[in-house]
Known about the structure:
Layout: E1 12-17, H1 22-29, H2 31-39, H3 44-64, E2 68-72, E3 75-78, E4 81-84, E5 92-94, H4 96-103, E6 112-114, E7 122-126, E8 136-140, H5 144-156
Parallel strand pairs: 6-8
Antiparallel strand pairs: 1-2, 2-3, 3-4, 5-7, 7-8
Helix pairs in contact: 2-3
Amino acid sequence: xxxxxxxxxxxxxxxxRLGPSLWLLVAAALCGPMAALVFTPVDPTVALxxxxxxxxxxxxxxxxxxxxxxxGDGMLRAGRARIEVRHLGEAEGFTGEEARRKCGVExxxxxxxxxxxGIDPVVVIPLEDPxxxxxxxxxxxRTPDRLIAAIERARRGDAEPVTPRTPGRSVRRRPRxxxxxxx
Length: 183
């Protein structure tokens, strides 16, 4: 059982692992047969074992090393970096060609960025801290609207988590009862 949260603490409002795309995992798994070919002259059984181990090891390493984007406890964490949400400006989400421009030609030279290939949408978050040399954060996310909503909730101090969902699918919300609606 988890401990109840003290006043002033927030739950995790948003959490997303920026895992590798399916195509990258398939390409990584193809390293297994290549490693097996190297060991085939030694022994075919050893070659199969080495090939399977190499493929599994590379895929596991790619998944385990995937950065996490998280909003909670008054902080935005993107990979190893973190910043208090009170220092963040109005976040904007971009997809498609706009996202490619924000990650390319329009990327500020001093911007801090966590950009992942295979994850097209990005959220651009300006910083309002005059002492910070970084003017903006650019973060890849599969659900920019949810990340932006979580940042806004964290700034307001709202502890209700943003429901994670698969992009493009609707979310069913259960109707609020009298106790939940505040009536």
